[in-house]
Amino acid sequence: MPRLPPVPRPAAAASTSTPDIVAELGRIISTRRWNKGAAYKRLAPSVTAAHVADLFRAPPAPLHPATALAYFEWVGRRPGFRHTTASHAALLQLLARRRAPANYDKLVVSMISCSDTAEDMREVVDAIQAIRRTGGARLALSPKCYNLALRSLSRFDMTEHMGKVYSQLVQDGLLPDTVTYNTMIMAYCKEGSLAIAQRYFQLLRESGMELDTFTCNALVLGYCRTGDLRKACWLLLMMPLLGCRRNEYSYTIVIQGLCEARRVWESLVLLSMMQQDACSPNLRTYTLLIKGLCKEDRIDDARVLLDDLPQRGVFPSVRTYNTMIDGYCKSGRTKDALGIKSLMEGNGCDPDDWTYNSLIHGLCDGKTDEAEELLNSAIARGFTPTVVTFTNIINGYCKAERIDDALRVKNIMMSSKCKLDLQAYGVLINVLVKKDRIKEAKETLNEIFANGLAPNVVIYTSIIDGYCKLGKVGAALEVFKLMEREGCRPNVWTYSSLIYGLIRDQKLHKAMALITKMQEDGITPGVITYTTLIQGQCNRHDFDNAFRLFEMMEQNGLTPDEQAYNVLTDALCKSRRAEEAYSFLVRKGVVLTEVTYTSLIDGFSKAGNTDFAATLIEKMINEGCKPDSYTYSVLLHALCKQKKLHQALPILDQMTLRGIKCNIVSYTILIDEMIREGKHDHAKRLFSEMTSSGQMPSATTYTVFINSYCKIGQIEEAEHLIGEMERGGVSPDVVTYNVFIDGCGHMGYMDRAFSTLKRMIDASCEPNYWTYCLLLKHFLKTSLGNAHYVDASGLWNWIELDTVWRLLDRMVKYGVNPTVETYGSIITGFCKATRLEEACALLDHMFGKGISPNEEIYTMLIKCCCDTKHFKKALSFVSNMIDCRFQPHLESYQYLITGLCDEGDYDKAKSLFCELLGMDYNHNEVVWKILNDGLLKAGHVDICSQLLSAMENRQCHINTQTYAMVTNSMHEASGSVVSELRGEAA
């Protein structure tokens, strides 16, 4: 049963009395017949227990012990006056110091009776020790007094002080009795210190005293608290043989232990045994059983027991009903939980705060409107909602993504002067970010600061994670900086979210730099972090670095998981390096899973080795890995690419026999190949089969048909199909629009092509590089006359700027203003053709329109400058990037530094390298990309050695594996150069 809070009373330890009152009181009491005089009557109403304590402590204690004792007893009888432990302690010290005769037992018992806190009991222990220390054996207390002190200390779980009092009792030459030992045993058993309890039990046995029920119950409790239910049950069964009768408490202790251990069926056995033992189960026993049944999801059994209680002569309390309500709510049966509330009200048991909070929490899982209605009803009945109550409702609305309702409840909460806590703010911010309501998320974060709260790492990280998932990595980095400024340390989740966001934003170099920062913050990157970085390197087809990261992960004592292997395998297979992927997995002894097999089948299929891919499917089945629809789709795709439709179609039958449903990807692959082979009727029949099987066409499926219409010039039919897919809830993607624009261009319908561009942008579908290539191709073709054929792949080698300017003007005419992506696509085309002059002209045109270049444009221009050996221009672009707060990619530095060394400008290369070391890059990646993959592959061994020394001098973080790799590469390169020189000399 929970302990009630103590009645407030004046503090005892510190003096709160007025010196004048204490001095005057001392003078009055020192006179004869002081209690009859007018002086005391005038002073008496002002005298408190604090004054009395100070009076007895006043040096050099002028009061005679007898006078002090008499006054203490006299003033204690005054109406409204109550002695404190401090006033008792002061008197006891005065009496013991003078070794004055007094009933010390009575005084200590009185002191214990007015002890309401653990601090009060500490004063009691100090007083007992002071009596023994100053008064000696002649002032020794009785065993009864000591036992009372022990029981009172036990009430506050003060076992350490109990040990001191017990020692004092023994030192006084007193013999502990059964009460003493039972009190000590029970206290240590409650605490779970069974070893100490057993020592006192042994002392009890050695003293020749008989065990009683209390002793055994205490030990049973101790065994239950330490989880040794076997011994608890054994002792319960042995109690009659030990001469101890079992009572309701004996059984209830063990029933509680078994229920908490989810062994409720054994508890029910004890219940039957208890009734046979003439022990009547009490309400607590039944409440524990109901709770245990609910924990084991035996809700209906718990309800049967609850309904049966009145017939057993036991009437449920609010706690019993609450236990049942909690069980129903946790099982999602909120209707039944509300039924219990009605039942308890019908039985005259009023719901308490716990009842309402439990019901509201349960209803908030899908029935938040009902939860709010219940809250309003409860408030009308006097219920005071807490921050937990409101947070549950806010959380419920947030789960249902009803953010406006959540914000409404938040405002109600604040108007009721109930402040939100960090958990509530965290829930709100999380859903605001998820719903892309970034402005409100920022406002909520500011509100946290305004309310004097400090956002924790969970709140900051949820915002960062949300931003990163929405592709707003710049905003995520701003929150990260704010987090650091406010002194909140990021955790692994924070860094993992940022790394994911940066890689998604194609800023791998920044993601790699975070590894170094993590380590500086004392956070060890985990497998997930490394796997994300490996994915980033694979996305850039930088497999050497991906393997290096893999090795670094293993070197740091981490075991790559299935996802890590799958990422690397899938990327290698997609790059037509399936054999390398397969060899890697075999070398590592990896057990292949469905996902791994599918990646390998896809890789070998795309490499043209469909026979081995089919063999892998059989091997996969033999090893107990069931192929899914995606596994077969990759094989179908490979066969169709090789014009083997006749081999692909039987695979559908094979899938059916194996109980695998053909997915939308597989259908689309086959439809596409049928159309390519001119089998339009077959394609339409397969399309009908697909829709009738419940597979909804995707944008890719529609695009296959749109492409076929465009190729034969049926633009109207193609456009009608676009409208049909939109009406069917399928949004055209960039490929769909590109196919249609290309079709319009082939037919010379340039107005329709530009209208489609406008339609595309209005639908929030961002045009890509190929969109502008197609527009330029057909725009140029129209300008030259339809007799001329224009190849998009060679377009950038000879297209003139004049054509580009006319294209941009035509876009504006159709209400499409060129964006940074527009300029970026065209600049990319010119840079790929190494036409730096035209690319720079477009850059100037951008600036003239007030459009600032993005990071990708600068990166393309730097590469183009290096390809055309315009290194001075490249350096200026690097400076411009840094001025715009962009961080140049390490590849840009690789091109520049290697190019400068090729030109013999080693000083400038070294200066540039030292500058980049002062920026946020991962130093291992710097070695990989610039020293090893750049300078050494270009044969610049000496400068590579100098730059490595520069890194060592700056104490850059390079792991041993990376250092060994680059030094070995330098030795090999040096040996190769010597061999070449010897060959030339010969």
From TrEMBL:
NCBIfam families: PPR. PPR repeats lie at residues 177-211, 212-246, 247-281, 282-316, 317-351, 352-385, 386-420, 421-455, 456-490, 491-525, 526-560, 593-627, 628-662, 663-697, 698-732, 733-767, 819-853, 854-888. This is Pentatricopeptide repeat-containing protein. It comes from the Eukaryota. The keyword Transit peptide applies. It comes from Urochloa decumbens. The lineage of its organism: Eukaryota, Viridiplantae, Streptophyta, Embryophyta, Tracheophyta. Keywords: Repeat, Transit peptide. Gene3D superfamilies: Tetratricopeptide repeat domain (1.25.40.10). PROSITE patterns: PPR (PS51375).
